[in-house]
Amino acid sequence: MTQTLQVDLGSLALVEGGYLLVKRALRRVAPGERISVTGQAEGLDVDLRGWCRAEGHRFLWQSAPVPARGQAHIVAGSAESERWAGFSRVAGEAGANDEAVADHPPRSWGLAARGATVEAGAPEFDFQLADKVDVWTDDAARIYQVAAAAQWDPDTAIAWNVPFVLDDDLEDAIVQVMTFLIENETAALIVPSRFIAQLHPHFREVMQVLAVQAADEARHIEVFTRRARLKRIRLGRSTIGGQASLKTLVEEPDFAVASFLLSVLGEGTFLSLLRFIERYAPDPVTAAVAKLAAQDEARHVAFGLAHLTRHLEREPGLRIRLADAVRRRHNALRHVALNDEVFDALLLMAAGSWDHEALRQGSQRVLRLIHDMDEGRRRHLVRLGFPEAEAAELSALHTPNFM
Ligand SMILES: [Fe+2]
Ligand SMILES: [Fe+2]
Questions:
Q1: How far is ligand 1, taken at its centre, from the CA of residue 304, in Å?
Q2: Contact 91, 113 (CB under 8 A)
């Protein structure tokens, strides 16, 4: 016969943490086996009896002579072991690779950490994005890590006080470009934020990438606003065409399609735009905000490409849906005018002055930008498995609003 497990609480009362020692001892014995508890705390017998009743253990008390107040025998009940052993599930593995992450995590895993043991009967959450194929990439963990380490402080990363004076028209052009960037960044913040709320948190790294992406866009909005307001109170124009184009992104319900239109085509095009602004900026603040935003955008494009590549490998039919989405969007926007204000502002910025020769050079630079944007989109489309000809066709149908 094995010896009964003894717990001596000394003067420790049950509520002072004594119950934790009793609990620990009970976990070490099987249901039906007994442990003994001794102690001198006032009312230990009463406390222990009540606790045992609540926890489903049988309680027997044995008075003892002073100084010990008594000894309890507790026969372990099966409530806890049944609650956790028979009716719980482990929410996948704790790693961040393909094997650790479940293909179809049940909605009843809810908010539980991946790798946690989930009690049966937990409430189901209404996560719309609950299939791995739709969202996952093993690159998410790395992209999140890089993004978290690359966060910059808008206040210190840019020399806001560096003195410069631009010609009024040139300053107006920069303010117009910033106004345009801000509304585009706002769409880029809203789109991932919407999907975070629909995503099963089992896909933790994807959730984290989307969250840090939204934080990136929040910073972009801040720095473009600060640059716009550096010398001016009033911002530039927001056009119907620009808003209509962005509305199609903000309202796109499908994660794959939204990522494709926003991250691959839109932010990909924006990368060329931001590098162009950095290169031809007439002042150091404009160059700095464009440069910092471009660094972040490159990650947004990389994540879009990574999860869509995996998705397309497993579901090649998605390629047709993505192509259709570009054509549909083009049709929806075909009566919408181009964003002349932005075009003109970019040209003047790239020219640097009203001088004829400068304007000629500025217009050539803008043409080269349009060419670079197209080339970038075609390269990304080919990487996603679109044939060259279709990549060229789809790139040409991309919104003239850039995003
Ligand atoms: Fe951005
Ligand atoms: Fe972005």
A1: 14
A2: yes
Ligand 2 center–CA 207 separation, angstroms: 15
Residue whose token pair is 């978290």: 148
DSSP 8-state class, residue 353: S
Tell me how far the alpha carbon of residue 270 lies from the centroid of ligand 2, in angstroms.
Answer: 8
How far away, in angstroms, is 181 Cα from ligand 1 center?
A: 8
Rounded CA-CA distance 137/259 in Å is 13
Is 309's pLDDT higher than 90?
A: yes
- Angle, CA of 9, 11 and 13, to the nearest 5°: 75
Q: What is the pLDDT of residues 152-161, one digit of tens each?
A: 999 999 999 9
308-341 burial code (b ≥16 CB/10 A, e <16): bebbbeeeeebbeebbebbeebbeebeebeebeb
68 confidence band (pLDDT: 50, 70, 90)? low
Query: How many angstroms does the Cα of residue 304 sit away from the middle of ligand 2?
Result: 10
69: closest CA among 10, 116, 17, 110? 10
Counting ligands in written order, which one lies closest to the CA of residue 266? 2
Residues in the chain: 403
| 340-371 tens-digit pLDDT | 899 999 999 999 999 999 999 999 999 999 99
Whether the CB-CB separation of 300 and 316 falls below 8 Å is answered with no
User: Could you tell me the distance, in angstroms and rounded to a whole number, from the CA of residue 290 to the centre of ligand 1?
Assistant: 10
- Model confidence pLDDT, tens digit, residues 1-53: 568 899 999 999 999 999 999 999 999 999 999 999 999 898 898 999 999 99
- Ligand approaching nearest to the C-alpha of 147: 2
In which element (H, E) is residue 389 found? helix 388-397
Query: pLDDT (tens digit, 9 = 90+) per residue, 389-398?
Result: 999 999 999 9
pTM, two decimals, is: 0.90
